[in-house]
Amino acid sequence: MPIDSDIYAKNLPLGKEQENVLENARSRQLQTLRESLRPGQRSLADWQGGQLAVSAVPGAGKSHSMAVAAAIAIARYNLHPKRQLVVVTFTRSAAASIKSKIRDRLKTLQLPLGSFVVHTLHGLALNIATRHPDQSGLNLDTATLTTPNQSHHILKASVEQWISRHPRRYQTLLEGMHFDGEETERLRRQSVLRTEVLPSLANTVIREAKSSGMRADDLWEISEQTRDAYDILAVAAGLYEQYEQLMKSRDYIDYDDMILAALRVLENDTIRHLWQSQVFAVFEDEAQDSTPLQTQLLEILATDPTGTLNLVRVGDPNQAINSTFTPADPLYFNRFCDRCEKNNNLATMNQAGRSSARIIEAANFALRWVNEKGLPDKNEPPFRLQAIHPVDADDPQADANPTPTGKSVELHTPEDIYQTIDAIAQNVTQLFKQNPHHTAAILVRENRQGRFLAEHLEYLKRDREIAIYEVGEVERHSKIPAEILKLLQFIDRPHSPDYLKAALEVLQTRERIPAQDLNRLATTPEQFLYPSPLTAPQKPLVAQASRYCRNLLHARLELPHYQFIAFLGMTLNYTGSELATVQKLAERVAQQTAGRNSFATILEVLQEIVTSERFEGVEEDNDDQYTRPNQLTIITMHKAKGLDWDYVFLPFLHEDVIPGQPWVPTAAKFLGDFTLAEVARAQIRTALHRQEVTGRVKGFDLPRPLDAWENAARLKKAEEYRLLYVAMTRAKRLLWMSAEQKGPFRWSAFSWQQGGNLQAKKPCPVFQALQRRFKDS
Ligand SMILES: Nc1ncnc2c1ncn2[C@@H]1O[C@H](COP(=O)(O)OP(=O)(O)OP(=O)(O)O)[C@@H](O)[C@H]1O
């Protein structure tokens, strides 16, 4: 009997017979859907309640199979708007993509679209918190959501308040080591502590502790378990305390507050049961990137009335690349996998169709080599030992494990970084000529490398009609309002050491002044800006910076206020679309200051824009933009996660960058051979992990600073290796890697426009190991 395909849309009652036919048809469709999955992926589709961990390899089709499994679960358990599947992922673009995949499948299966929701973790928390404002204490009509970073004014204010409340502790830090009481040195140390060391400590510690559910009081408590001259954790606890007070007094909230607010809501039995009865199960993608607090939220929602957790967590611990700058830590997902393994609830998705067989071989080799030789660690190996396997011959993915281009894995050692540019240009030109529909990208470790490449490859656009898309340029747009604000603040109060330093940092980043120790310049603004004939003459680098700053001050006298933002845009040498962003910003400020146009109001409005982060650059972010054919995308390895290209170039693979060596900025060496932020973080991490295992926070000593620093260094190196692994596994047909014999001493201080010097560089150890293994590459 034919089925009226619109039967659901029309909401017509079904006869028994029709119902049976529909049911049979659907069960066949579900069977076909299940069979479209690879063996490893099927475990997701076969899930029948309870906890399941899925540890997947790069390109295994995590989101693809999660979408299929979601549709199958919705059909199997007859889910509907009052009993939903909750799918959670990390970024908004990933959420949009998985949502549309699930919708498509549900439409084909004629199942209700309201049977599932997709959220980012923060979106989910926000949803819960705002629906119950009385319990969450969160009112988004009045509160401002903000993501404080190290240079955020709230953090700076927290530091200032902490200093005034804890003068003795501050004094101890100031004296640090080898202090002879000399005044200039004291001023310099003050500047370093107030503008670098303490904001960085506050930022790191607050994120780390708060996202694990630790409050300032908890931090005070564990600080008693450490012994060091500065009482680093006690300093950190004090900063955290000030931060919380300030955030509250100004009605600001951060992202962790949102999760905490949602957890507060769910402490209420009635509300919790309401949510739990609506949530059938939670499927989480990118689970390696969640923090303990986020996991706690998901676990509560996924608990059914019998206390069973219906929670599926899919992730790849080997692609955990955010743990050095966010509190995400692969350890948690690894542990979840281990626990599930003991209960036979661990599945692995180890087949991937993205890359050619040889690229897969190279990635597997790199992973094994790092674990065994590069950074062996029995307790916490850098990688989970799982190899990528090519797919079976009858795999449904079109062009799976594609035909390689040339040798597929190429390892080069050009004489210097300029030779690399020529080699990439030549390769890309030829490859696009042969295959105009293919895609290509250069993956870099830091944005400055990207800028260097983009500037030197720009001619490809003109001469060979190959588009160059430098992703970092778009990211720089979001920094524009803050940069302009810093310059305006300096112009407004040039004698403030803080404003001067912030302005100098902007000018240095934008290469308007040469790189140098800015603390020295900023400690005595008067002397720096207007050196008297009685003081020693300024060195040429200093004189150049001083001249630049004076010109800015001079401009204030010459230009009307309303032209000032545009003028600063020109001064900072912004390029085409950056200038468009500046223009948009200037218009927005003009609009908001209409009728009260003064320097002070401009500052006020701009401050508001920067704080509330409501300003977006002119270009929009969109994943498709990164992978257009006949375009050479220049993107950081971090941002490349989740994407792939036919040809991937990985230049500048040097030992000092990958795995690198954590270093103490010269300016902060007076405190010792470690950074306070990393030491505190490693100590908190140890405390949290011990607590997880033993259930106790107290009763053991935390590592001393140098040991904690060593731990931090090891974790950082492990993450750098994982980053390289993510980068390598983005390639489909050609993976081109290079370690130049000569490169800049440090990219952050390299000014190629001024003919910066190159020096001999050591290749990244994995690169060398690959050279030995793939001799013909
Ligand atoms: N069973 C399958 N049938 C057809 N295509 C598949 C299947 N599994 C995966 N794919 C395809 O493989 C590609 C990679 O999938 P996806 O992007 O979901 O991988 P991933 O695991 O998220 O990768 P990564 O973590 O490395 O970014 C996609 O184009 C997807 O459509």
From TrEMBL:
It comes from Lusitaniella coriacea LEGE 07157. Its EC number is 5.6.2.4. ATP binds at A56, V57, P58, G59, A60, G61, K62, S63. Belongs to the helicase family. UvrD subfamily. GO terms for molecular function: 3'-5' DNA helicase activity; ATP binding; DNA binding; hydrolase activity. Pfam families: UvrD-helicase, UvrD_C. Residues 378-642 form the UvrD-like helicase C-terminal domain. GO terms for biological process: recombinational repair. Residues 35-356 form the UvrD-like helicase ATP-binding domain. It comes from the Bacteria. This is DNA 3'-5' helicase. It catalyses: ATP + H2O = ADP + phosphate + H(+); Couples ATP hydrolysis with the unwinding of duplex DNA by translocating in the 3'-5' direction. Gene3D superfamilies: 1.10.10.160, P-loop containing nucleotide triphosphate hydrolases, PCRA, domain 4.
